[in-house]
Amino acid sequence: SPPPHHDIYSIEDLAQLIYDLKQINPDARVTVKLVSMTGIGAIAAGVAKAKADVILISGNVGGTGASPQTSIKHAGGPWEMGLSEAHQVLTLNNLRHFVRLRADGGIRTGRDVVIAAMLGAEEFGIGTASLIAMGCIMVRQCHSNTCPVGVCTQDEALRAKFAGTPEKVINLFTFIAEEVREILARIGARSLQDVVGRTDLLMQVSRGGEHLDDLDLNPLLVKADPGANKPYCTVAGRNEVPDTLDAQIVRDAAPLLERGEKMQLTYTVQNTARAIGTRTSSHMVRKFGMDGLQPGHLTVQLKGSAGQSLGAFAVQGLRLEVTGEANDYVGKGLSGATIVIRPAPQLAQPHRNAILGNTVLYGATSGRLFAAGLAGERFGVRNSGATAVIEGCGANGLEYMTGGTAVILGPVGFNFAAGMTGGMAFVYDPEGAFHRQLNAESVVTCRPESAHWQGVLKALVEEHHRETGSALAGDLLRNWDVAVGRFWQVCPKEMVGRLDHVLDAEERVHERA
């Protein structure tokens, strides 16, 4: 699933994710996996237009042994049906030459590979058979750390039983390749590429009997481009995406990238400038590593409306300052950078206005975000380490959060903290409405009464005030003795026992002092 998770993503979200991935890794091809099902052709067409390089059609057979039985038995359809539909629709819409098709899901033999090629695949995934070749016996206990043959476990005693070797997998693929070669020789083809899309070489085998052939497979064998026996995908390498402002930032930051000089750059932006900071981060990591630069080594000041994915995957050493606003996905996968968003000077009551879009800090692992305004829905979903201060958010805030710290100086939407299992949150609630929006299944709440957590909270509000000039934060700090009693501390139930021990020790030290 693309980053917005389940119920709000669209093909545009997927296109943005592909764009972001191609910015952070300018060498990688992007593969999009689609489950084989009716209507997959329309989805595949959208994925091709979104500039994916490979579309993987995944069948309903195979997959991880840790999957639920309902997924194993009832998810998706045969890869043959999905592959045929995707190949036909892409061909009919003149999109087939942009992407390579890959098939997987129960491919075990050379015959399976040749049939997949004839139905349109150029690449093939053989996972379950490879696992079995290494010694897996499919007991489906992958998730329980009890694999009896040591394939999927962290238990050293069980891992000692693992007997797999690279040679066993090499042997499997050698035999598959030999069978492919034999089949191609029998039909007079010189290479596997010669039979890609050659559905005219396939036919439905009659099983005999009056009622045994009611299923007509001929629609799978339609050749969408009769007479065209040529390579389908004509793109060498990958589908390139348009440059963003980062192309200019990389050029302007040459003194940093070449000699490590500390720099500050300033630009005016529009919302067409997407993924600002992402390609720059890629160059910084390649040159200096993930933590080779101090925070703020490169400061990029932006004025205007930043496009989607501002600071996606941005790393330590980069600081992005926006005066204006930002769109969806700010700090997606944030990896150490600092992002500061201040409202335009003419904006009245910024703490009542949205300054960020949806899905901010999705999957962030480290870094800091300060925004003097409201965020949209799904703020901080799957955050696992970033620190953030904002002034309100929409529905599903901090869903599935596993680490980091979030301070929200305003109202939150419904289903707040659903599935939150790590990290810490503080929510300012002067109206007493917070608990109507909270999903309390996995968290507990209390007032921040310990000196430790009051100190953490106040320090973050002070930093937010310094970074953004927030009037709201200033008001809270001037009346801190009153304001602190209106915050709720949100703590995952899984952490309560560990935190109590830490807090007790800290309180005893404080009392002795």
Q: How would you describe this protein?
A:
- By secondary structure, the protein is an alpha/beta fold.
- The chain folds into 2 domains: 201 residues, Aldolase class I (TIM Barrel, Alpha-Beta Barrel); 251 residues, 3 Solenoid (Pectate Lyase C-like).
- Helix content is 32%, strand content 17%.
- The chain has 16 helices and 14 strands.
- It has a 10-stranded mixed β-sheet with strand order 5-6-7-8-9-10-11-12-14-13, sandwiched between helices. Strands 1-2-3-4 form a 4-stranded parallel β-sheet, covered by helices on one side.
- Helix 2 links the parallel strand 1 and strand 2.
- Helix 13 runs antiparallel to helix 14.
- The longest helix is centred in the middle third of the chain and has 22 residues.
- It starts with 10 loop residues before the first helix and ends with a helix.
- The N terminus and C terminus are likely disordered.
Rounded Rg? 27 Å
**Binned strand content:** 15-25%
Helix-strand makeup class: alpha/beta
CATH topology of the largest domain: Pectate Lyase C-like
Q: How helix-rich are the residues, as a percent range?
A: 25-40%
The appropriate CATH architecture of the largest domain is 3 Solenoid
Overall tally of structural domains: 2
CATH superfamily of the largest domain: Glutamate synthase, alpha subunit, C-terminal domain
Q: Report the count of strand segments.
A: 14
Determine the N-to-C terminus distance.
Answer: 52 Å
The number of distinct helices, counting runs of at least 4 residues, comes to 16
- What general outline do the C-alpha atoms trace? globular
Order of strands, main sheet, comes to: 5-6-7-8-9-10-11-12-14-13
Tell me the series of helices and strands, N- to C-terminal.
HEHEHHEHEHHHHHEHEEEEEEEHEHHHEH
Main sheet overview: 10 strands, mixed
CATH secondary-structure class of the largest domain: Mainly Beta
